[in-house]
Amino acid sequence: MRRGIGWLLRIIVLLVALAAGGTFIPRPLIAPVEASSAPATHRILLLSGPIHTDIAIPIDEGTRAAFSFLDNADFPLGHPNAEWLVVGWGGRAFYLETPTWAELKPLPVLRALTIDRSVLHVDLAGHITEPQPAVTSFDISDDQLARLRNFMVDSFAREAGETLPIPGAGYGEIDRFFEAKGYFNALFGCNTWTAAALRAAGLRTGLWNPLPQSLRLSVSVYN
Question: How far from 55 is each of 38, 114, 152, 195, CA to CA, in Å?
Fold first, then answer.
């Protein structure tokens, strides 16, 4: 019994150490040159929940062109009231089957803790109020925004060059789900994808950010 408790304590200490190191060791170690030299003309948003993060990018001509494959009557990317394209990545079972905490089920949780296929969730948003605790903003350059768009677009799984929408999947009338590249697990999940997307845009994150709280803290320290 004591030996089991001892091992449990060691595991907890190890996880705490990894989380602390992942938050306070920057990635990349040296800030990209363009992050400080190029004019920052675009704003992007990190949207945080208790366990999940999304990125909102401005819907401008470049975004409409990069994501033209999304634009149709059911997802009106060119709608005059649409200001932000919101993109998030996550585990297929948990993301699709848990729109609210009240609908939490054992199997999606089990898959999230082990390994699962991944999906992308896309949504449109109008005005997003700033500042607020769940929103962290960054001002980036043309090139940085282009690289972020490319990272997001490249995250969509494709067959014969076409993206793979998931029929009937969504939380509301407009949002949609697509099959995505990669596999999800609790250690390398939605928030590590978000961190990788931010790094693609030339921002710095922690070395490992599995939780929204650690990601928000690391980006506030290093950007």
Answer: 21, 25, 10, 10
Query: How far is the C-alpha of 16 from the C-alpha of 223, rounded, in Å?
Result: 24
Environment class of 113 (CB within 10 Å of its CB; exposed 0-12, middle 13-18, buried 19+): middle
Run of H or E including 22? helix 2-24
Res 26: pLDDT? 81
Q: How many CB atoms lie within 10 A of CB 169?
A: 16
> CA–CA separation, 222 vs 35, rounded Å?
11
What b/e string do you get for 131-155 counting C-beta neighbours within 10 Å, with b at 16 or more? eeebebebebbeebbbbbbebbeeb
Residue 12 CA to residue 100 CA, distance in Å, equals 29
Q: How many CB atoms lie within 10 A of CB 6?
A: 10
Q: How many CB atoms lie within 10 A of CB 49?
A: 11
Residue 82: pLDDT above 90?
A: yes
Displacement of CA 46 from its chain's centroid (Å): 8
Residue 65 has pLDDT above 80, yes or no: yes
Q: Is the pTM of this model over 0.90?
A: no
Query: 205 φ, ψ to 5°?
Result: -125, -175
Q: In angstroms, rounded to a whole number, what is the distance separating the alpha carbons of residues 220 and 32?
A: 16
pLDDT band at 119 (very low <50, low <70, confident <90, very high): very high
